[in-house]
Design a protein that fits this description.
A 7-stranded antiparallel beta sheet has the order 1-7-6-5-4-3-2. The protein is of the alpha+beta class. Strand 5 and strand 6 form a beta hairpin. The chain has a single domain, classed as 2-Layer Sandwich (Alpha-D-Glucose-1,6-Bisphosphate, Chain A, domain 4). It contains 4 helices and 7 strands; from the N terminus they run E-H-H-E-E-E-E-E-E-H-H. The protein is globular, with a radius of gyration of 15 Å.
Length: 142
């Protein structure tokens, strides 16, 4: 299992940052996501399901995604399931001076033959996930 976490402060209000991150249709602007398809009608909430086309280490994967918890202005927990990995985690939000602190944490579990290469793949997976935080900051502060 690969543990991931990062924290960044974004010079925007908590409501702006939370609203942007909670709308998974924004994922292609700051994550290695090519396409998002929402499968659940209505507003984004706990139980919302969607599919994403995700780019990881040069390969594309279709993922089933679920928002497990959504506490407005505080927390989003999620589960992404792809053929070669499962990523379960959460994003926490809190005011920080004139901005918002965003902390992501979770666990990535590789499956199939990738599980045998976990030690080699772990730094690449962490790097891939950690690179999303500066991109989110750039998008929201520009």
């Amino acid at each position: 299992m690969i543990h991931v976490s990062n924290t960044i402060t974004i010079a925007r209000s908590l409501d702006e940052v939370f609203t942007y991150v909670a709308d998974y249709n924004n994922n292609p602007t700051w994550m290695p996501v090519l396409r998002v398809q929402t499968l659940t009608d209505g507003p984004i909430r706990a139980g919302t399901k969607f599919k994403q086309r995700f780019l990881m280490m040069g390969s594309e994967y279709e993922m089933d995604c679920l928002i497990r918890e959504l506490e407005r202005g505080n927390k989003i927990s999620f589960e992404y399931i792809a053929p070669v990995f499962a990523w379960r985690g959460m994003v926490l939000f809190k005011p920080n001076g004139a901005g918002t602190q965003v902390q992501a944490q979770g666990k990535v579990e590789l499956s199939g033959t990738l599980r045998l290469t976990e030690t080699l793949v772990a730094p690449k997976v962490r790097n891939l996930i950690n690179n999303t935080a500066p991109k989110l900051k750039q998008v929201l502060e520009s």
